[in-house]
Amino acid sequence: MTMALADDIIAAGQDATCHILRFSLQAPEAKRGSAGRNGSGEKGPRKRKGPSPAGQGDTLSQTSEVTVESLHSVRTDFSPDALQKAVRFNADCSLLVTGGADGFLRLWEFPSMKKTLEFKAHDGEIEDIALGPDNKVVTAGRDFQCCVWQRDQLVTGLRWNENLPGIPDKAYRYQACRFGAVEDSAGALRLYTVQVPHKRERRPPPCYLTKWDGRSFLPLLTRPCGAEVVSCLSVSDSGTFLGLGMVTGSVAIHIAFSLQRLYYVKEAHGIVVTDVAFVPESRRGRELLAGNEAALLSVAVDSRCKLHLLPSRRSLPVWLLLLLCAGLIVATILLLQLAFPGFL
């Protein structure tokens, strides 16, 4: 139900266990068909055939092969209904952090998978984990808390509604948290959280997105993001876009700067979206974008993976905007001269 990726390593959560797997992708190879065998692979009677066109007897397989090797398997949750609910690698992949239904945060050395720290982070399930600068860990729990930890020491607790007095503390709970870069600002960092209603009502209240300073952990902006309950969150590599998956199967893309919604597909899956991820903004990723501004992958309980393309937004160059402004000023002056002779 949960997964983290580090180069060719997958940390996959299955019930109370975290499986460490290594995968490799093999390029497709041309396979030459055997003319002396029938479709079942058994030898058949020889039949005299005329010359066939060049290459007709060759079959080309375009399917790449993925091989998976199991490296480790460790138990990461010990509650009666044990379930690992979150797993993350740190930036240099030397540390793996897990959280689950028992509310404990566990830190593991990687790749040895030696447990280095274990402590009770929440009174209830841990919904999500985000790793930030200096190996600070942010945890979102079902106990209405979102906490920042330095190892097992509480740095601060987040309060998204401190500037929204009309919203009670226990009306919403934290569902997801992610760190993201800041576009055109090297070294800056933002934390994004999703808050969902704790209780379902006949007229569902909106969910909320909050943007935080990634170092002081002060709230910068909060906006509603629709009445559909959000199930997962992702941030693009450049920090430009946020991807949201919903319990209803819908998918949305928001602008990280303003938190405004830019793209939305209602019930793209028709059932709970379990994860969303942007196509990496590497050279290969840009080739896959094919002129689009961003691409988001979504997966759901319906066992489908869907690709959402965000077309490039049209924008005017700065020099053209300045030229238009200058033309507008000149036109205004001429109109005033015509309306009021002797104005100049």
Instruction: Evaluate the radius of gyration.
Output: 27 Å
Strand content: over 45%
The succession of helices and strands, N to C, reads: EEEEEEEEEEEEEEEEEEEEEEEHEEH
Question: Total number of β-strand segments?
Answer: 25
Distance between the termini: 74 Å
Shape: globular
Helical content band: under 10%
Find the structural class using helix and strand composition: mainly beta
- Kindly report the average pLDDT value: 87
Strand numbers in spatial order across the main sheet: 1-2-3-6
Low-confidence stretches: 30-58
Q: What this model shows, in words?
A:
With 344 residues, the protein is mainly beta. The protein is built from 2 helices and 25 strands. A hairpin with a 5-residue loop joins strand 21 (251-255) and strand 22. Mean pLDDT is 87; it is low at 30-58.
Summarize the structure in short.
With 344 residues, the chain is mainly beta. It has helices at residues 283-289, 318-339; strands at 2-6, 9-14, 17-26, 30-32, 58-60, 65-75, 84-89, 95-100, 104-109, 115-120, 126-131, 137-141, 146-150, 153-157, 172-181, 189-197, 208-213, 219-224, 230-235, 241-246, 251-255, 261-265, 273-278, 294-300, 305-310. Strand 12 (137-141) and strand 13 (146-150) form a beta hairpin.
SSE layout:
Layout: E1 2-6, E2 9-14, E3 17-26, E4 30-32, E5 58-60, E6 65-75, E7 84-89, E8 95-100, E9 104-109, E10 115-120, E11 126-131, E12 137-141, E13 146-150, E14 153-157, E15 172-181, E16 189-197, E17 208-213, E18 219-224, E19 230-235, E20 241-246, E21 251-255, E22 261-265, E23 273-278, H1 283-289, E24 294-300, E25 305-310, H2 318-339
Antiparallel strand pairs: 1-2, 2-3, 3-6, 4-5, 7-8, 8-9, 9-10, 11-12, 12-13, 13-14, 15-16, 16-17, 17-18, 19-20, 20-21, 21-22, 23-24, 24-25
